[in-house]
Amino acid sequence: MNADKKKIIIRIIIFVILAYAPMIAIGIMYDFDGMLTGEPGRLYTLCATLEGFTPMAANFLTRLITKEGFSETYLRANFRGNMKYYLFGIAYAVLGSLLSTILLIILYCPDYSLSDIDFGTGPAAVFLLTLAVDIETFWINFGEEFGWRAYLNPKLEKLMPEPLALIVGGIIWGMWHAPLTVHGHNFGLGYRGFPFTGFAAMSLSCIFVGSFLTWLTKKTGSVYPASICHACINGMVIPALMIPNYAEICEEHGFGTGAALLGINALLGVGAFIALCRKKKSSENEIKAAA
């Protein structure tokens, strides 16, 4: 192994430790708050709100600790010629939410009728307002994207083939959620195989959703489209607008609801995974041909 690869491995290890440590602390804090008050306290709530910024902090700190510098940060917006990708990221989130809503209706609403939907201006206004808020508050998810897409994935690609880098990066991102998954985030509690089924589902989702976010980042040379897309994925309210008893379904079918919401977006991301793998293979063939 040459010296450059050793440096990359060391940087990845430091980055992962720095990104994971606060999340583990948040998980411990949840239990501690629960013992004291019977429910998560204000300190836990504050830390959980800030958890998305830990990958961003890990990016900065790793660069400082290893004296790497701040090249290839993907911090330029690069609007010119790339607005279609910004819009495509938003459309991806909206389509994923709509399709997952249809899946939830098929699975859990056998007596569902289109008459159950309120097609008035109220729900439309809520949807548009939510979408606008998601776009405006993209910075909440920028913290994650600046870590995973702008630092971890480019480093992994220097060590392994792109398909494997997407898989490894997705698993690292998915397991980063583990301290929250253990406490019911995304999938609820008490489902079959808890919490390991949740770990697997989250990691699988992150592989393919991460592939789409990586594709956006590579296409634009910017981390902002992925940040906006990520924010819209997290903030879509289509299920709540279209399914009258959505809250009850979430409570009764926590794992199924979470799997449907994340799984549809993951399926949509398979295309990006394939596109990135094909592009990498095509580039390798061109290099061999030139040689």
How would you characterize the overall build of this protein?
The protein has helices at 3-37, 42-50, 54-65, 83-108, 121-136, 139-157, 162-176, 178-181, 196-220, 224-235, 238-242, 246-252, 254-290. With 291 residues, the chain is mainly α. Helix 5 (121-136) runs antiparallel to helix 10 (224-235). The protein is globular, with a radius of gyration of 20 Å.
Please tag this protein with its features.
disordered C terminus, 0% strand, 291 residues, mainly alpha
Compact description:
This protein is mainly alpha-helical.
Q: How far is it from the N-terminal to the C-terminal residue, by CA? A: 24 Å
Helix content: over 70%
Low-confidence segments, given as residue ranges, are: 285-291
Largest sheet: none
Q: Which structural class best describes the helix and strand composition?
A: mainly alpha
What is the typical, i.e. mean, pLDDT? Answer: 88
Number of helices in the DSSP assignment = 13
Radius of gyration over all CA atoms, rounded: 20 Å
Portion in strands:
under 5%
Taken in chain order, the helices and strands follow as HHHHHHHHHHHHH
What's the total number of strands?
0
The gross shape turns out to be globular
Which helices and strands, and how do they pair?
Layout: H1 3-37, H2 42-50, H3 54-65, H4 83-108, H5 121-136, H6 139-157, H7 162-176, H8 178-181, H9 196-220, H10 224-235, H11 238-242, H12 246-252, H13 254-290
Helix pairs in contact: 1-2, 1-3, 1-6, 3-6, 4-10, 4-13, 5-10, 6-7, 6-9, 6-10, 7-9, 9-10, 9-13, 12-13
